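To make this tangible, we now present a fold written out as tokens:
***
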Amino acid sequence: MEKKYMERLIGKYCKIVTKEPGENRASVVTGTLEDVDYDDGFVLVDSKQGLGCLRISTIVAIKPGRKNNKKYEKRAIKKDKKAMVGIGTLIVFIAMILIAAVAATVLIQTSETLQQRARTVGTATIREVSAGIMIDDVTGFTDVGKTKIEYLALGVRPRAGSKDIDLSLAHLSIKYTNLSILQLNTSLVTVVNTDGKTVFDTPVTSGSNFTILNNLSTSHFGVVVLHDADGSVSNTNGMNSGDKILIMVNLSALIPETGGLDAREDISGEIQPELGSCGTFECSAPAVFANRIVDLW
């Protein structure tokens, strides 16, 4: 090989054919021609076996070519592209951090939302369980001839630990031959013993000739206040701890067939506040009405 040709191939991937003196067969070496030393008569070749030397005198031919050895290519890529692999790893690492941050943010927001919802539900549940109305007694008031019960007086008070109860939002259901739903007539709320009258003769307002019983209808009930230290029932129709009232019901209007509850007949009902448990009652009229005031429950 001439010197000028050898120098042109430095740095190129070549197929080098060599033949040792006295041998019949030639051998082939593939690799990158790194350097040529004319003084010592050697060429430096970087092949897949590693860096090595070939004597110039044994070289028969050199042919430039392309790398086609897979193992060599992998080794070369691994050697020459370490920086690119490092950047890729860094990108993946940053992406994992961002994903973890987003997931943590979502979890924190979700936990805060659930905590607020749990607090709201817990407060509502406590209020629902603790609030409510209780019916202590049921008293009837018969007609003049003592043949039937025309009016009912339900003794009502808040349950222990109950929050304030708005009577204007409560509804009373009476079950007899049908189901009647009554609400409070806010104009029929007065304090007991007004003008020295009895419960069933309580006037609508002081000095009035009209009683609560005269103004009751099929859709409304009235209230006679027995105990109301802060005036909440009288002023705002709100019943709170310690209050006690009588709910007045006109049975003669609710049972038009007979004009009231006959002897031995059963009647039931319940009063349901806006929140909390309801107060219920179920009673039977006695066989004989000895007095106009009848203790039913």
Q: What stands out?
A: The radius of gyration is 52 Å. The chain has five helices and 17 strands. Helices lie at 3-8, 70-80, 82-130, 232-236, 251-254. The chain has a mean pLDDT of 85.
